[in-house]
Amino acid sequence: MPCSLMKKLIYYPPGTYGTFVNWLCNTTGPITAEDLPFAEFGNSHRYYEDNKHAALFTQKDRDLMLKSSRDFGVLRCCWPLTTGVKLINPDQDPEFYYQTCQKDLQSIVLNCDKILILHPSDQSQIWWYQNFCEKVVLSESMDSKTFVSRLNMVDHPWLMIKDPIIRARHHLDLQKQQPGLVELFSLYNKYSALDFSTWQLRTAMAYDLHSQTDNAYQCWQQLEQEFDTIKFVSIDQLRDNFQSTAVEILDFFEIENSLDSSLQFVETEWLQRQEHQFKDQLVNNIVDAVVNNQDLDWTGKINLFDEVYIQKLLNDRGITLLDHDAWPTVTHKFWEIIK
Hints:
Rossmann fold; 44% helix; 6% strand
């Protein structure tokens, strides 16, 4: 099959730079600041605004692409979407994400010539979590039917709210039928997470992380062993070896463009917008310091979503925290809120 007719697809969970890599694949150099795809929060939604045809966010659109003989260039799609832009594991099945994505990939791999999967890893799980919470925000110019499953922007305009904490509260409301969250809503005597205090919100979000199971970011290792024709790239590979990884991706898709001279510029511009790229190391250092009662000061270095992950990781180690809205930011004070 001629290269011009090859079906090429980027497959990714929201928050793993699918739109950014799509821009890389469909852009020729040299690149100037005006050509960059970056919008608010460092996401690349500016590219989406101008290239909606490159995104396959509905089953119908993806099926049409796979059956078509047209040349679409490199397209992208997210892993299966359930509630809005979030794939939820309602039964806390430890194999849920692997089984869901395996089934989905099996339905497309035979009809797609080149599939690249962007994914988080053990070393970038918190970075991914931050990206999802902060950067996965929709805009008025996006088609209200784009993310249709059980949710769309017409019925749920909060998907366009810029404040990531308010969006997180709404996401909890959508999931409050999960048994663990039902218990928390009842315990707090609240109908909506919009009314949660800070400690209640933090606790509920930590439970939500726990309910997803580690399979949400570990499933890619299992899938890579099964799908040997698919290229898997973790976002930490993109961070740590940007230029060589970008070249590998372009070579994989058999793309000949003139980006080589611009990759250093693109890397610099991209990395300076990634506020959370090293949060995994920071958060794990904080958790280790708390567990081992070692002196550490993290004043001004974390936000609520980091706190959620810290609470989740401490809970995983059997450490429970007292109900407290404002956390201390030094180890010896933090021990005062441990039960």
